[in-house]
Amino acid sequence: MIRNHKKPLGFGWLGCKNNHSRCSICCVIPPYMLEKVAINGTETQRDWAFHALNLSSEFRGRRKAVGSVNFAISPGEKRRTIYDAGTSQSLPGKLVRGEGDPPSSDEAVNEAYDSAGATFDFFLEIFDRNSIDNRGLRLDSTVHYGLNYDNAFWNGDQMVYGDGDGELFERFTKCIDVIAHELTHGITQYEAGLIYSGESGALNESMSDVFGALVKQWVKKQTAEQADWIIGEGLFTEKVKGVGIRSMKEPGTAYDDPVLGKDIQPAHYKDIYVGFKDNGGVHINSGIANRAFYLAAMEIGGYAWEKAGKIWYMALCDRLRSGSNFQRAASIIIKVAGEIYGEGSNEQKAVQNAWQQVGVSVS
């Protein structure tokens, strides 16, 4: 277990070491997927896609207008609070379940509650971390946000889940790795504060995929070899040709669908996306770092959260900085592996091999 020191909340918005990403909302479904639906879908599906894209854009605008405000509180212990937006766009909505309350008749409420609890328990048991801010930040979630809203996001204060459209996407509370992914954005916000753009943004997204996958594996008690390494498995309806929204094992293979298009994630740095869409490829290029973690975890073996996860977590909390790029991150993570397990150890060699295999050179 890692004894992670508590850090004072004096690093900018919501305790970040920087405030570059203070107005970013981190959505699990990247905009380029929704843009494909807006082009290829039926009239109804196109309407849903435009609705989801517009809501995300509007919310970013509201965050910029509000500025550096933190509405959440830190009670110092596990405290889950679930709200129901009732398909409105008002947050947080009506309080429907608090910590210790009996299960609801609403499946989405229970899924949000249970998965937030599992994520809290994972970080506490494995890394001795007390919630997102390490001070017991209350885990607030809103379900039934928007009408058929095709996304879930962390807005800097809380989790927000749409119900999906029922034709392409199921409800977004259905997948524990999606919930853990979004909550990890909060941890990154309090720790490295990785700027949500370009390579640092891709590292931000990758960290959320890494720990989203680890929470799922921990709950299922799966070894690295037993795990599917799919993010969002079960999120697509049966109509979609795909296994999930991303594959950490084989980036670029998660889906190939007439409406959603083809998974465009690169698995190697030579194929990195360079452009303006997706905030400079934050979701696209995260596949490179995702595969590096997968390769390291597989070579190390056993439960991925025990060693590979420990290395990545320590790097995220203590070494990575807001503008870290892939090369800098690889160098830091390799160094951390050596500090924990010894220079030239099998664990360090596995991490070094992993980054080399995805084309990230370290001097």
Would you summarize the structure shown here?
The chain has 363 residues and is α+β, with helices and mostly antiparallel strands. The protein has two domains: 13-190, Roll (Elastase, domain 1); 198-357, Neutral Protease Domain 2 (Neutral Protease, domain 2, Orthogonal Bundle), CATH 1.10.390.10.
Mind explaining what this structure looks like?
The two termini are 31 Å apart. The chain is globular. It is built from 10 helices and 10 strands. It has 2 domains: 13-190, Roll (Elastase, domain 1); 198-357, Neutral Protease, domain 2. With 363 residues, the chain is α+β, with helices and mostly antiparallel strands. Helix content is 42%, strand content 9%. A hairpin with a 3-residue loop joins strand 9 and strand 10. The protein has a 6-stranded mixed sheet, with helices on one face. A two-stranded antiparallel ribbon has the order 7-8. A two-stranded antiparallel sheet has the order 9-10.
